Amino acid sequence: MEKKERNKWLLLLADPVIFFYSCSWLMVLVIAGTLAQRELGLYMAQQKYFASWFFFTGPVPLPGGRITMAIIFINLVVYLLIKSSFKKTPGIFIAHIGALLLLLGGFLTAYFSSEGTMVIQEGDSSQYVSDYHSRELVLINPSQEEDEVTSFSMGWLSAGETLKHETFQGEIKILETYTNCDVVQRTDSDPSFKGFGQRFQARELPDDKSHERNMFGLVMAVSGFGDSIDGKYLLVEYMNEPTFLGAAQCVIRKERTYLPFEIELLDFEKKLHPGTNMPKSYKSVVNLLEDGQSRRVVIQMNEPLRHHGYTFFQSSFIEGRGPDSTVLSAVKNYGRQFPYISSIIMCIGLLIHLIQLVPGLMKRNEEKEG
Amino acid sequence: MPLKYLVPILLSVCLASCNYSSKDVRVYKVKKKQSSQVTKPEPVSGINWEAPESWTPKAVSSMHLAAFDIPVEGGNASLSIMTLAGDGGGMLLNVNRWLNQLDLAPVEEGALPGMSKQIESINGPFTVFTIKNPTKPEGAFNVAVVQMAEQTLFVKMVAPLQEIDTLWPVFETFCQSIKFER
Predict the structure, then answer these.
(1) Which of A115, A138, A164, B93 is 20 to 30 A from B181, alpha carbon to alpha carbon?
(2) B164: CB partners within 8 A, 6+ apart
(3) Least CA distance to B148: which residue of chain A?
(4) Domains along chain B?
(5) 3-state class (DSSP) for residue A354
(6) Can you tell me the distance from the alpha carbon of A302 to that of A177, in angstroms, rounded to the nearest whole number?
(7) Residue from the list A78, A128, A186 with its beta carbon closest to the beta carbon of B34
(8) Which chain A residues are Cβ-neighbours of B88 within 8 angstroms?
(9) CB burial class (10 A; 0-12, 13-18, 19+) of residue B135?
């Protein structure tokens, strides 16, 4: 009886109807997400419809892209194991494996990929990638040759969180956060504020459609660092006035990932369409520096640099009165190969299935003609 | 793998990833050159000036390129030179900061042209503000701002209210003596 009950549940999970309705719902999400980009911008629409488990339309919660794909994944696995037969329908079996790999690649991309930018001025070099969206709060302890950086990731940067670590004394409590803000002259007088926050306050702004343009800010209460340091501080991205907690500098910035190699920009070239200011092509001539070795590489449109799992694309540039700077998009995606591999596997599976059907179709055709 | 284990495992993976959190603390070391790119203004090479002999150079913090004590009657005067990355936060933000230091009300962007004047120099025009509060006789400012290639240069003179206008010619001469590579 127990086994029968279990089989009943498994058969329910393997029901192709689940797959049909889930895929239909995914199509609805794709349309809704595409239309919402106009209102919310690309990143927020992607987060709301595709990277969420549930989202709200008014007071109504609806399943997001992640739970829909998780349901499809479970449905395919159970179907593959209890209903599909390699001996009877090898093509369908292989196509299912391909589809599962595609979903697995999506999972790896969603949870383990990173995207950011690397900005390098001509003649200068860089060893880190700044994330497009995540911020970090860092305490930088300087020393003669190298600085020790303690970084708290985005998950810590919400009101009520308390930040402590063995690398510094005392604690930092996050009081307020602003996903997008600007800085205005302080209208009230709050003696508990120190440094920049004594004169300025953050003014909350609606999120920018281009999420990377948002200026993140926070108010934090510092204690245990000493009477002259303890108090409230305002930290905002790109602020010019440094905030020191004792010897350590405290900064809010886009989350950095340091690389085991360095990229030096030798030359940046920009070609314009004749008679216009429209760029035709950009090209960065760089030196890839690693373990004392140097390799000259050209990064340009359709010719990215791939190294240590990172792909560096020529993305943009900054022109000023000084030397030009190149802006490279850096992507690390563990699921990068999955769409190619799974597409090939699905094609092979469908081809085998069609070949398997051909004798039956020919026989049926002969019967009709006969 | 028996099916009785597989389905609960898949469900657990889904539920565990619901609770996915990006709460990390990383500690790493960075070579000095990279850390200097954080926010501290970098020292400017190729910049020089001519200060009057009567001015006494004094120790400066890492924020400043140089500072001088200036002898005046009836109090202390000083001058400091500093650079900030980019536009240094913008003209309005800085002017309002100086106004606040003298307990004066902030101004709107449109008021800036009326408050400022220009000093011509070999490197182009400096935008100059004289900020005074009659109720604060102990200090008033002459401040000059000029945009360099990647940074903004600030020259700030602090002097007693009654001396600030007297010191204007020497401040103007000092600003005109500053030379840097654009």
Answers:
(1) B93
(2) B130, B132, B140, B141, B142, B157
(3) A321
(4) 47-180 (3.40.1000.10)
(5) helix
(6) 39
(7) A128
(8) 240
(9) exposed
Instruction: Write out chain B residues lying below 8 Å of A10, CB-based.
Output: 3, 7
User: What is the distance between the alpha carbons of residues B79 and B98, in angstroms, rounded to a whole number?
Assistant: 14
A87-115: per-residue pLDDT in tens? 888 998 999 999 999 999 988 888 888 88
pLDDT at B3: 58
Per-residue pLDDT, averaged over B137-151, amounts to 83
Best mutation target, A240, A263, A324, to test chain B (most B CBs within 10 A): A240
Question: Token pair 């590579």 is at which residue?
Answer: B181
Q: How far is CA A294 from the centre of its chain?
A: 30
Structure tokens at B37: 């790119």
Please report which confidence band the pLDDT of residue A322 belongs to, taking 50, 70 and 90 as the band edges: low
Residues of A in contact with B86 (CB under 8 A): 240
Superfamily of domain A116-126+257-332 in CATH is DU1608 C-terminal domain (2.60.98.40)
pLDDT of B164 above 50: yes
**pLDDT in the model for residue B177:** 86
Give the start-to-end residue ranges of the domains of chain A. 2-113+336-369, 116-126+257-332, 132-256
pLDDT digits (tens, 9 = 90+) for A266-298: 988 888 787 777 777 888 999 999 888 888 999
Q: What is the pLDDT of residues A159-178, one digit of tens each?
A: 999 999 998 888 999 999 99
Average pLDDT, chain A: 88
Residue B6 burial by Cβ neighbours in a 10 Å radius (0-12, 13-18, 19+):
middle
Q: CB–CB of B23 and A149 under 8 A?
A: no
